[in-house]
Amino acid sequence: MNEVALDDITLKYKILGEGDSVLLIHGLGSDMSGWEFQEGSLSEHFKVILLDQRGHGHSTGPGMDVVTAEIFARDLNAFLDHIGIDEVSVAGTSMGGIIAQQFVLDFSERVKKLVLISTGPKITEEVVDEVYGWREAQVEGGDEAYFWASIKSCYPEDFIDQNKEVIDHLMNKENLLNAEGVLAAGLGLSMFNAEERLHEINVPTLIIHGEKDRIFDVSLAREAAGLIPNSKLVTLPDCGHSPGVQMPERLNRLLVEFFQDD
After folding, report:
1. Is residue 252 within 8 Å of 238, Cβ to Cβ?
2. What is the pLDDT at residue 208?
3. Which of 3, 96, 105, 175 could form a disulfide with 92 if both were Cys (CB 3.0 to 4.6 A apart)?
4. Using DSSP, how many helices (H) and how many strands (E) does the chain show?
């Protein structure tokens, strides 16, 4: 794992494969390993760039009370400067999709293509309530309670019941949960609303969303598709908030085909 030191933080990252650059942005409370079922497939075709966002995983955070989408976007811009890459295609999931929207709006010259997974053009009260429930569970029952609260939000009940090995893997893998970093990001991103600016996005955009997403309702994906020019929406029946885990082969095909399409 490599690292880049910015003004007040250190970002951990890794680069896999060769070819056109693809930057993957993970969700709230996760880290670059949230793309573990995508990185191998994508790196067969592209240069895949993964990093832990500030206050997440192995990356540090300066202890800010609030980290907004604009701050995360500036981090990515400085990060790409440091590693010497001018243009990337970007895929973001959940919180990562919020950051990806802000990044393309603020630094459009750096983005070739955009993929938004399990996210929306704004944070609704329903999103805040669902995610805040994870924090409440953690306060009351610790990290294991946080894990189960988030799992029940991210996956349909039948998937949890029928995929014990997958759930056990997610539970037992290393996940450096930084409660302060997650809270700072959650507070900052809760104010996000890009509805009035999404018409500015001028790159090919693919929106992927599970029809059973309990965090970002699929109606938010449909709204984003209506606001972003040159966008395409793919909905996944029976899929919850995490298609990267629940339907990895389907997601990987969608990503490879979209990034390869001229």
Report:
1. no
2. 98
3. 96
4. 10, 8
pLDDT digits (tens, 9 = 90+) for 126-163: 999 888 888 788 888 888 888 899 999 999 999 999 99
Could you tell me if residue 151 is inside a domain?
Answer: no
Q: Can you give the CATH number for the domain in which 233 is found? A: 3.40.50.1820
Residue 71: count other Cβ atoms within 10 Å of its Cβ: 18
Distance (Å, rounded) from C-alpha 55 to C-alpha 29? 9
142-150: long-range pairs with CB below 8 Å, 24+: 143/177, 146/29, 146/177, 147/171, 150/29
Residue 138 included in any domain: no
Token pair, residue 121, equals 């053009």
**Cα–Cα distance, 244 to 237 (Å, whole number):** 14
Could you give the CA distance from residue 248 to residue 167 in angstroms, rounded to a whole number?
14
Q: Is the pLDDT of residue 176 over 70?
A: no
Single-letter amino acid, residue 109: E
Domain span at 218 = 2-124+176-260
Inside any domain, residue 143: no
The amino acid present at 167, given as its one-letter code, is I
pLDDT of residue 172: 86
Q: Tokens 């995508």 map to which residue?
A: 38
69-91 per-position pLDDT tens digit? 999 999 999 999 999 999 999 99
Q: 20-57 as b/e, with b when 16 or more CB fall inside 10 Å?
A: ebbbbbbbbbbbbbbbebbbebbbebbbbbbbbbbbbb
Number of domains the chain contains: 1
| Contact criterion met (CB below 8 Å) for 151 and 160 | yes
